[in-house]
Amino acid sequence: MTMEKAMERIPGFNGLSRDETEKILSISILKKARKKEIIFSDGEVGEGFFAVLRGRVRVYKMSEEGREVILHVCGPGDHFGQVSMFAGKNYPAWAQAMSDSKLLLFPRRAFLDLLSREPQIAMSMMSGLSSKMRELTLQVESLALKEVPGRLASYLIMLAEEKKSPGSLHLDIPKWQLASVLGTTPETLSRIFSDMTDRGLIDLDRRDVTLLDHTALKELAEHGRFYDVRTPKK
Q: CA 188 to CA 128: how far, in whole Å?
């Protein structure tokens, strides 16, 4: 895949002309991160923002008790570190490669200088970025306002839609990290997975999930509790 094609997958960049894309690529820096490599740390001076071309990156915070709270899991086409870019502040979280990854770094000073010279690029980017922000806001609200079974059902439906694979999906992250994303414990998550399997909603084989009853999953995502969901007859 060419760099231009890769840029088309990144919200905010996918509506740019070829000339605009080439100008942005001219100031970008290609970086590679090995699995478990720290890309930036909480409080580190922000050098710019990143886009994922290949691999997975998790963005997380550490609580005072030393507990890890995952904020985002970024895959190809996602970007992270924008706060330091536009607010001129230090990175507010940690970022770590979950697998060998290829990233594009957009240095803050060079990127802002480009936007000041080429304001039409900023206008072109705003539509794509605002659309992505609306999508993320809806996802956060969906996950935050539900009980854990509803959060997991919403997450599985969302992941299947993202991967355009309505019948089955592969969990990109270990279950203990998924528990952190959903704001629960690994033990609770395992119990809910078992409940979903027993009720015929899903079939689980390690990190491979088959969605068996889409209607019941959507009802669970909406109501958030198992007792609000019809149990399929055996």
A: 37
Domains of the chain: 3-131 (2.60.120.10), 146-228 (1.10.10.10)
State the first-to-last Cα distance of the chain, in angstroms, to the nearest integer: 47
DSSP state of 170: E
Burial class (CB in 10 A: 0-12, 13-18, 19+), 33: buried
CA atoms within 13 A on the CB side of 158: 17
pTM of whole model > 0.85? Answer: no
Structure tokens given for 35: 């699995």
- HSE (side-chain half, CA atoms, 13 Å) at 14: 15
Q: What is the largest CA-CA distance in the chain?
A: 65
Rounded Cα gap, residues 150 and 92, in angstroms: 29
> For 158-167, how does the pLDDT look when each residue is reduced to its tens digit (9 = 90+)?
888 877 777 8
Q: What is the pLDDT of residues 127-154, one digit of tens each?
A: 666 666 666 666 666 666 678 898 899 8
Q: Helices 214-223 and 148-162 sit at what angle, rounded to 10 degrees?
A: 130
pLDDT at 112 over 70: yes
